[in-house]
Amino acid sequence: MSELVFEVFISLTLLAAGLLTFAFRNRRNYFIGFRIGYTYMSDRAWRETNTFAGLFMMVFSVLLLGLALAGLGILTFILTMLAGVVFLTVAGFRVAKKAYEEEELSIEAPEKPSEKIEVNVRPYLVIQLLGLVAYIILAAILWDKLPERVAIHFNASGEPDNFASKTLGTLLFPLVVYPLFLVMTYFLREPAFAPLLRFSRRGWKAFAEFTTVMALGLVAIDSLVLLYNAGQVPSSWIGYSVWTFLIVTIGMIFRLFWARGEGT
């Protein structure tokens, strides 16, 4: 897939998502739309948030498509896309929270979120950011040793079966995937971000630990992919790391469910 095709595909996908979100702005559902706790608990929050999100995604997708057709570099495109996604997440959350709070003061009585549980997420965010910085430093050190097309996917035996350009393959992970863990960790402080996850304080700490371990695990795997593409390690190391990551993930999931209802 060429960089232009990738950019156009992302732009059109975002446009389709915006159209669907706007179309379902008056119909709460579990499949389409900007879905967080506040939008589930309040019809007004759902309507206002998805109206905003749908319109924003449509306008932003047209902007991205124009930048793609104008020949914008893939790195700048990804950074622009990431900035838009982060803005949509934060702004959408604020719109939903404001709509819920305004409805709460009116005669309508939306469902109440659970009591706020204070969890200090700063240490987890710092650890995740340090992992991201370590990956970027490694990528900078190995940059001149990387081929123009790098392996980005491997089969069960650890052999590469999909490739991409050096810029896309090396930077797509830290600039698109990794921030998801940071966002989940940051917003877990809000009781209405995911009200169905009725965790105790210890449960929320376990969730923060889970997202942090997942983030660092992916950093480790992608660092090995970098080293493989630079000719520093065999592909078998990647296969071993993926299996190790899966085992750790299963263990962390069991720990999360074990700790979710425990007291402080």
UniProtKB/TrEMBL annotation:
Residues 132-176 form the DUF1648 domain. The keyword Transmembrane applies. Pfam families: DUF1648, SdpI. Keywords: Membrane, Transmembrane, Transmembrane helix. InterPro entries: DUF1648, SdpI/YhfL. The chain crosses the membrane at residues 6-24, 45-68, 74-96, 124-143, 163-187, 207-231, 237-258. PANTHER family: IMMUNITY PROTEIN SDPI. This is Hypothetical membrane protein, conserved. The lineage of its organism: Archaea, Methanobacteriati, Methanobacteriota, Thermococci, Thermococcales.
